[in-house]
Amino acid sequence: MKPSSRVRLVIVGAGMAGSKLANDLQQTLNTHYSITLIGEESKVGYNRIMLSSLLANDISDAEMPLVNTDKMRVGGVHIISGDPVIDMDLGTKELRLASGQSVTYDKLVFATGSRAKMLSIEGASAPNVMGFRTWQDVDVMTALKGYQSVCVIGGGLLGLEAAVGLVKRGHKVTVFHRSNWLLNRQLDTESAQLLQNRLEGMGVQFRLGESPSSFLQSETGLVTHVVCHGGEHMKVDLVVMAAGISPEVRLAKKAGIEVNQAIVVDEKMKTSHPDVFALGECCELEQQTFGLVAPIWAQIKALITVLSGEDGRFVIEPTPTKLKVSGVNLFSVGKIQPTQGDSCIFFKDVAANHYRKLVVNDGLLVGAILYGNVADGSWYFQLIQNKTNVSDMLELLVFGEAYCRPQVA
Amino acid sequence: MTATIAKTTCPYCGVGCGVNFTIPDSLTESVPSVSGDLDHPANFGRLCVKGSSLAQTLKSDDRLLAPMVNGEIVSWESAVDTVSAKIEQVIKEHGPDSFAFYLSGQILTEDYYVANKLAKGFLGTANVDTNSRLCMASAVVGYKRAFGSDTVPCNYEDLELCDLLIMVGSNAAWTHPILYQRIVEAKKQRPNMKVVVIDPRETATCDIADLHLSIKLGSDAAIFSFLLQHSAQMDILDNDFIAQHTNGFNDALMQAMESTPNLVSTAKFSGVSEQALMTLAHWWEKAERTVTFYSQGVNQSSSGVDKCNAIINCHLATGRIGKEGTGPFSITGQPNAMGGREVGGLANQLAAHMDFATPGAQKLVQRFWQAPNMATENGLKAVDLFQAMEEGKVKVVWIMSTNPMVSLPDTAQVRRALEKCELVIVSDCKANTDTTAMADVLFPATGWSEKDGTVTNSERRISRQRGLLPAPGEAKHDWWAICEVAKRLGFQSAFSYHNVHEIFSEHAALSAFENNGKRDFDIGHFCKITKEEYDNLTPVQWPVLKGRPEGTKRMFEDGRFFTPDKRAKFVPIVPVLPVHVATPEWPFTLNTGRVRDQWHTMTRTGDAASLTKHTDQPYVEIHPKDARQLGIEDKTLVRLTSPYGEALLKAKISRAVSPGNAFAPIHWTQQFSNAAVVSNLIPQIVDPLSGQPESKHAQVKLEAVKNVSYGVVVSATPLDTLDFIYWCYVPSEHGYHYEVVWSVGENVASIQSSFKISDQVAGEWLEYTNPKTQQIRLAYINNQKLSVAVYLHAKPDSISCDWLESKLAKNVVLSELDRMAILVGTPANVEDKGSIVCSCFQIGSKQIEKAVAGGACSVETLGATLKCGTNCGSCLPELKHFIPTIIELSA
């Protein structure tokens, strides 16, 4: 097939999902598709997950790439960076970029990802209030000099990773978290307490069950103080917003594609419009959005199958959570708060920071929290995914694979 | 390092195996070890698992190390003064029969001799009885009635030489393992040799049986009554022998024909199939070389003596006695039950195989002892003795080396008796037994490896038990303590022995004194034995007459017995069933016995951790049908009630017992479990002739204990409170292991608080909870060391605690991975052995199952791969059960 006769596939968004899709497509369906990858960031194809580690100084820039963009280019992928798509026409299949350049597609994939949710409180738009999403964000934080007071809003995965990174860089960090315990979607109170103890030991301070009521700004517009609920003023140099993410759907919405919380897709990753697909954090299937890497990789796989003309399907499965803070091991997957009919099996060795909770229902493992020793996480994950009947293993299940394997065999 | 090897004798069962005892030069740097003595004719180098574990029992945390009076440590001087003053007082005020000795088949012949001499010759009471009363008193009376003497005719070789071996009421595979192994070996060499087991239970001994007669409890006599009349019918009588050497044959035969007229009625009476009984009868017809091997199942009965005579009648009628491979062979349960008989250490004996009724015997013994105060009639037998004590007639009792609070029937009565008794003296090497708890005066005794003297085994073989280790603390030999009391009572010259061989030579001299072949027991050869000769004594079977130092292998070879006319006597026997029968209120019959790896009341075997692995807890064996009806599941707690008391035991559901019957082992005391003393349930019914209790027959009801949870506690220190429904202490290598039962409703907090760990201790709890399996497991760890681990389950689970216990060893610091493993009970990479089957090599059921699954198809291949069964062999019957029988079924 001649290059000109190949289908023009354009991927909007060069984050992890878009870059990996481009890379994998190039390796498998290069002869069918001519691929264009368009990103708003200047850096393309890096591993966003590793930003926390980069911030914490646990890795260097060299360890950041997710895909080899040079190789992709040589292989024929057209990469446009630092130039976001600002408009599109579904009828003419034309895209307009911020630079004025226009790109035509036969098939289009939205991989626009998401942005940090900005709380709608006074002062939230100040220049020293930032998200924690991009390499650029990390560059800003690493450039901070001296001992700065940082307020992190949100005690979820991202917020805690940011907090630890900043503490390690010598700053004073206070985390505001609306819930009464950290990682309230992934942990229960006991494991969250273990985590909190550990992070406090590293120097992070916490204000739980609390959101700031407002930010006080200086004349220059910078936030100088966080106003706490009790009226107390806390001096800050920087505010990091990590109170959740919003899927980036503006372009799709404007173009007339069906959008709910995110771009609505079917299990073939197709949007409401033929020839337009979406995947990653910007898409929504069965009212669910996706923030973790495993389902997104599965979406890429499914989409490539679809694009190859075969019957690909993406199936939603529980995805485990890990916190990327070195020295802190936690693992959470599936249903972690029991409801009627569920039973919880516990192992607690608080002194050794080792905690396990398994949620079991009708012979199946449905959820797990591991703290401290997470070696068995992937095994529990498999049991959940494979819907393995664990009735015969209940006595030893919480002690992990090494104890149960002989019984399985 | 150099070491000394000395020969001594095993202190357990009546087989009397020779033991090589290796003593390291420095006892602080190394510990003694034991092995079988290749030269000893009882065992030729073999030792059973109990014997093999003797070295483990040498160091006990619970030695009695100083004399005590009313709970206070005192000097020997003072303790002996207290005792002799009290004996003097009660004898003065109430007569000599207000004093009694209660002795044991575990003390040595020399200890026995001086006790008997003091009581019967100097204090003037025949109240000298012994725990041997509980084990072979019926056999003694049976022999005496038939032979005129208490003479075991056979020897162990006869077991190997016979063509038919009938084992009656004996689970020798577990109780006399070395004899059993000799039989197994003989049967292998001569496959035509037939073995018949007569036992209500299907025991491990049945493993080599060509025929098992699962008789109704206590109905043994009918089988032999039938064999007697059948012998006449089939014309296999030895008419010459009957005519020349016996009396009373016709009466006995007439009675047999009346009692057991035919096969059908006999089979019905004994509850066996006619076919099985006929098979036995056919084999009996053919096998001129027959040994009948019998033990507690025959003796512990209200008609025990008659059963013995029913057996002996058959041997006399067919002349199967006094020849190679023949004889009625009573096997004793204690190391020196026979020695006790020889000195006259039973209340119905006088001395040196003479009875009060033997014409001239009293005068003879008085002359020999120069005794000032001879007893003139039989004293009180064990059960009567304790009843007289309760009635206030016996006011001072001196209990030596035995545990009547556990071994005598009706523990509540024994307790009442000891409470009533004005002075209870207990000589023991253990500080804490159910009986020492009742004592006013405690004398610290030497134990095996320290005691020096002789014992006699079941084949009349006298062997030396040698004093090889120094006595700890203030412990003294029993004979010494008796002599000290005797001297204070004014009998200096008769009890001033300097050395144990002086006692033995006096005993030998008495046996020969004016004997001239009138009495079977004569060891006159040893009358003037020197210390050196005594110390070098090699095992020898009595009689050892002057000029015949080689001893006597077999008795009655000349057909002459020890009755006045030298003829043996037939005794007409009416077979009867046990006294108590099942009633609607007490629907179950409880049989009692032993487990493989424990001995008696565990005062010795309880010190060897490895011996608890085979059976770690007391149990009651119940047929599956009964269990189903009573709602009792395997290993759950069962309450046994009899009119006399109660016990709590774990159920073992098994077809080895028949429906309506139950079986419980006798070993566990209150030191080991809160309510497992089986003698609580047993009535004080005795054989009228021998006084031996019917301990194998109690009427009970069984009831499942509901609403409980089961668990295990292992602790670095002994638990302060044992506030459980049931607990059993399981001796272990390290730390303290308890099997426990809680009432339901315990939770993490209530369990944690029950262990009362001080707030001062900076340790931490580990916790595992699983509502699906109703499990709670907790561990308290202090400074990386395990303090206590608690496992609680809804159902009884056997958790192998070996690894857990190893974590209680000193200097063990828990690793990160260990912490979780503590709550599992095993580290992930360690094989779970299952329950231990082979104690010698500590091979467990799961290992064996694995080897079988891997192709091991015989006990030999199992032995080759795992070593199991290749040492003492007592697990061989169990090993066989692991070998699939599919091959046989399809053949």
TrEMBL record, chain A:
InterPro entries named in the record: FAD-bd_OxRdtase (IPR050260), FAD/NAD-bd_sf (IPR036188), FAD/NAD-binding_dom (IPR023753), FAD/NAD-linked_Rdtase_dimer_sf (IPR016156), Rubredoxin_C (IPR041575)
Keywords: FAD, Flavoprotein
Organism whose genome encodes this protein: Marinomonas maritima
Matches recorded under SUPFAM superfamilies: FAD/NAD(P)-binding domain
Cofactor(s) required for function per UniProt: FAD
Family to which the UniProt record says this protein belongs: Belongs to the FAD-dependent oxidoreductase family.
Domain NADH-rubredoxin oxidoreductase C-terminal: 321-388
Record's protein name: FAD-dependent oxidoreductase
Cited Pfam families: Pyr_redox_2 (PF07992), Rubredoxin_C (PF18267)
Domain FAD/NAD(P)-binding, chain residue ranges per copy: 8-287
TrEMBL record, chain B:
CDD domains: MopB_CT_Nitrate-R-NapA-like, MopB_Nitrate-R-NapA-like
Names of the cofactor(s): Mo-bis(molybdopterin guanine dinucleotide); [4Fe-4S] cluster
Pfam families from the UniProt entry: Fer2_BFD, Molybdop_Fe4S4, Molybdopterin, Molydop_binding
Domain of life: Bacteria
Sequence ranges assigned to domain 4Fe-4S Mo/W bis-MGD-type in this UniProt record: 3-62
UniProt keyword terms in alphabetical order: 4Fe-4S, Iron, Iron-sulfur, Metal-binding, Molybdenum, Nitrate assimilation, Oxidoreductase
SUPFAM superfamilies for the chain: ADC-like, Formate dehydrogenase/DMSO reductase, domains 1-3
Gene3D superfamilies: 2.40.40.20, 3.40.50.740, ADC-like domains, BFD-like [2Fe-2S]-binding domain, Dimethylsulfoxide Reductase, domain 2
Presence of keyword Coiled coil: no
UniProt keyword Cell wall biogenesis/degradation present: no
Entry similarity comment: Belongs to the prokaryotic molybdopterin-containing oxidoreductase family. NasA/NapA/NarB subfamily.
Protein name (Swiss-Prot/TrEMBL): Molybdopterin-dependent oxidoreductase
Protein species of origin: Marinomonas maritima
